[in-house]
Amino acid sequence: MAERENILELKNLVFSFHTYGGEVKAVRDVSFNVRKGEILGIVGESGCGKSVTAQCILRLNPEPPGFFENGEILFNGEDILKMSNKEIRKIRGREIGFVFQDPMTSLNPTMRVGAQIEEVFLGRTDVTKKEVKERALEIMKLVGINDTEKRYKQYPHELSGGMKQRIMIAIALVSRPSVIICDEPTTSLDVTIEAQILDLLLELREKLGTSIIMITHDLGVIARLCDRVIVMYGGKIVERGNVNEIFYDTAHPYTKGLMKSIAKLDTKKGDKLHPIEGTPPDLFAPPKGCPFAARCDYAMDVCSQMPPETYKISEEHKTCCWLQHEMAPDTELKKENAVLEGEGK
Description:
The chain is α/β, with parallel strands linked by helices. The chain is 29% helix and 23% strand.
């Protein structure tokens, strides 16, 4: 497959929060790219930095108490971190859409659904009021909402959970953005509605060619939807690769732990799941070595002393783990073809 053009790039992003208890290092040296027309998954447990990273892209985290310590966020080659508030407002919703985590609380209960979809066009002089309504009704139909004229006039409390989530996706899509960020869009939905929402996102990608960033802790969603996957832990990226590499050629102990902690089709009744023992690292004082070292079954002395280098296993597959070092003991996670990034094969 030909290399697709990057539409979004994060480079060495560091984002922290000032709090009464100290400085929280929420995002620590995160770098990744999003290609045109692809679905990129970001997976990890609660508190790993997924949502903060996503909100950094549109500068949605409050500043202060949040602040950028380092990094670049390049959208079509322009650094969002250097933009004025006016310039960022032109991107939010128009060029990059955002589907928030909980539709029950993200929609304004005092506004009709149609008005909330049309808010994206506030301040724009290139479209008439009639055109804005037509676009709103068109996008509602596109996301699978029937009887659009009726729904357009309703309030959020008159809609089901699945319908609210479709409205959230409609708000994100109405201006035909290049990128949509979905922050756990199926968390509060039952499995039937979840399947419908995932099918909808796949269909929209096919129809509109939109790039999607899917943030979730659900590996089933990742497997069904995504082309590439980023695994985050303790504010860092610990492994990345295409879906098959992450699921079937796992190279990091944390990713392996995530895989073992979910039930599979052949899991028998009464079988115990295997949780990852321990607790996530304290991001007030992040460990100087690997963030997963304290919970890792394979941890060596070096793991708690030095942050691991990035090892390249394939063109897409990379991991930050000392187990890939040539001096590390052999385990099922060690890859013979792993090389230190930058050294080549």
